[in-house]
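Materials and Methods. Structural model of PTHB1 protein. The 768-residue sequence of PTHB1 protein from Crypturellus undulatus was retrieved and submitted for structure prediction as follows.
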Amino acid sequence: MSLFKARDWWSTVLGEKEEFDQGCLCVADVDNSGQDKIIVGSYMGYLRIFNPHPVKPGDGFQAEDLLLEVQLREPILQVEVGKFVSGTEVLHLAVLHCRKLCVYAVSGMLGNVDHGNQYQIKLMYEHNLQRTACNMTYGPFGGVKGRDLICIQSMDGMLMLFEQESYAFGRFLPGFLLPGPLAYSSRTDSFITVSSCRQVESYKYQVLAFATDADERQETEQQKLGSGKRLVVDWVLNIGEQALDICVVSFNQAVSSVFVLGERNFFCLKDNGQIRFMKKLDCSPSCFLPYCSVTEGTINTLVVNHSNMLHVYQDVTLKWATQLPHIPVSVKVANLQGLRGVIVTLSDSGHLQCSYLGTDPSLFQAPKIESREINYEEIDAEMKQLQKIIKEATKTQDILPKSESERELIVTAEVSPELDAESQAIDSEVKAEAVPSVTVKITIQSRVTAQKPKLAVCVEAPLALSCDQFDFDDLAPDASETVVLSVFLKGNCLPPELEGDCVASYSIPTAESVCCFVLGIIKVAQCKFRLPLRLICLPTQPSKTANHKLTIDTNKPPVSFLTIFPDFADQSEEDQSNALGFQFLTGSKVTLLASKTSQRYRIQSDQLEDLWLITKELTLRLEEHFKKQNCKDFTCTFSGSIPLQEYFELIDRHFELRLNAEKLKEMLSERAVQFRAIERRLLTRFKDKTPAPLQHLDTLLEGTFREVIALADAAEENQANVFQAFMKLQSATHLVVMLISLWQKLSADQIAVLEATFLPLAQETDDL
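The predicted structure was written out as tokens:
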């Protein structure tokens, strides 16, 4: 038997298909007999009064537990017990309906036979409400002695105050939208509620009494002159969430406090609205109740959540947690049959329960387990069987990538060693005399039946393809398909990479897919290809001067450029063995120099970003050259300073263009709004049956149209500049990463981490 389950002392289920809410439960000595009774009202109009007295804990409902059950024919929104009748201080029952407030006297008569005592209610007075009620509160408003006044909040934000049998006044709450919980603080003589602005508001009773009457909402001339008083809030606290309930508590050993239960927290406030403490709740609460604590200066709070849990807090410290069989909408603490601190809960479906915390001793004893001899042979055989199953399940043949000979579909790309005799470049923005192209031949070879294979080819912008998507019919085993395409430079800037990717997607048929005529398991095969440097640059005369220079050190003697750059160097020119010039199609030049005495190579250019492609090509060709000579210890290093200042200038330029793009976008939006507004004005003038002068609206429309076109052209031009700046920044970033890796002699894995950090995206986007 769990220690953390609420122990059922007495429980019952009220009616059939009845609904209940927060104000439908009240615990008080309603018949003035000296013992607490449980009063419950339902939305079906039933009023019930209970006096539970089970013979033993856990007994169900007995007929004599129900003292009174009467149907009032109107939904009961709230029940309260207080001194509501003038001339006497005995307790009476107030019942709030949608359009009526009724006050009853509950009395019991001693029975003359075995049926027990008889209880009845007598209507003392009632008030017909002009507005639909939401909730109510009561108390000694204005500091009156020996009686309680009632305040009702309507659905449209009016506070209606009743001095027992007579209506006092009504006031509208300022800025009202939806009604919230309402409570009265006798210590400060004020009403406390939570508005739709999600803030706790306090209104003094005296301010309400002397404010402008709610029936006279239109301001008169005298009020405008200052003779009337406006309803002013006493204090405001923003809690940032809607409130479920408010309780004002004042115990002898604790200071007066205002407790507010929010959707995610509960707050304890001082009388002036300052927060004493707050507690963040783990689950969404349904109701709560502060009550007196045995520890001086603290207050205990019962908080029930939608996880059927009741938590007991001492200020903000969780002291106990117990599980309930239902989700209550209201919780009270009662003294029943001499048992103090009984927790009374009511759910929205009518489950009424009286429970207490703790546990009863359990007499259950676990039975003894029959002892038997262990059969080691059976256990050994079972262990071997389990190990065999684990071994089969952890095979890595489908997890690790397959080798070239085991792949089901192989994609290969072959780049032509020579440029196309007739260039296939179309719509190129490059201003050079001729834009070359190179042919790439891609072959797909299938070892199994491949359904609907598709091939996608992509290259780095501003490079472009003559065709980038290919669809094929089903491939039989050992069948192949070949496609030919051309690559050329389309944009008027340099690409950051001279590489391309081929990705082929296909599906392998399964037994289920063949039967259902659907695609089988979808798989992907891919490969990369490298484009020649001749695609974007031409040989030219070396330049002696340059703004940016880099020196790459090696551990081997310098190699003649006639050997490693045969496609650029003229074999008849001996001077080109140590100096070589490259001119990109975009117009910039790069010079490559080899030292005759040391093992160094120098790359120089007027632009930092232009150094990247030549530097990378140099290192790749040197590695290939020494690899052919079976030299395995060749390394390149960099000992100079990283050109960070020039790199930061490229970052600033790119950032400036992006800011300019945002500015142009904002200006274009403003002009477009202005253009549409002028169009609407003109359209109204043209539709008017009586012609009116245009007042130069046509001239203003034409001028705005010109501004919109000019801003659109400027935005388009700026977008092209942003793209070029991004390409330059990407090339410079590649160069900086390469120089850092050569400087620190990083491994391939470390270089991959560095590239992933500095090069997260391969294209320009707004989220970059």
